[in-house]
Amino acid sequence: HLATSLPLPSERDHLRPRIDLIVFIIDIKSKYSLKNVEASLAHVDVQFFLGKVCFLVTGVGRVNYCSIEMNAVWKLGEVYCSPVLLCELELEGVRAATARRLLRILQISAGHVPGVSAFFFGLLMRNAIDD
């Protein structure tokens, strides 16, 4: 399911499936994109930041057209203890690889990978970023 911002409308709460992963998409070419994500973060329960949130940054292959400083994006990942994935949607191979990574993160956060919890996965991603 896709939403352009949070909070989600409450009138359909009873029909909404369980949310296992929230992917915040940031378009590197749009300052509005980052501001929208920052505003939406306030509506996410703090428990989701334990392996159930990630930031997907699109347009990273177009450095000349950036409207957002990457430091601001890395800071979001650091502050919210959530992984930051970089993607160039215009490249088929990168797009497919990113989709596979997101699917794997979703499987882990939904509890479908034996022996790996979302919290443990979040710590692993964090350690990988820090190295």
Automatic annotation (TrEMBL):
Protein location: Chromosome, Centromere; Nucleus
Keyword Coiled coil: no
Classification via Gene3D superfamilies: P-loop containing nucleotide triphosphate hydrolases
Domain of life: Eukaryota
Cellular component terms per the entry's GO annotation: chromosome, centromeric region; nucleus
Keywords: Centromere, Chromosome, Nucleus
Pfam families assigned to the protein according to its UniProt record, in alphabetical order: CENP-M (PF11111)
Main location: nucleus
Keyword Kinase in record: no
Protein name per UniProt: Centromere protein M
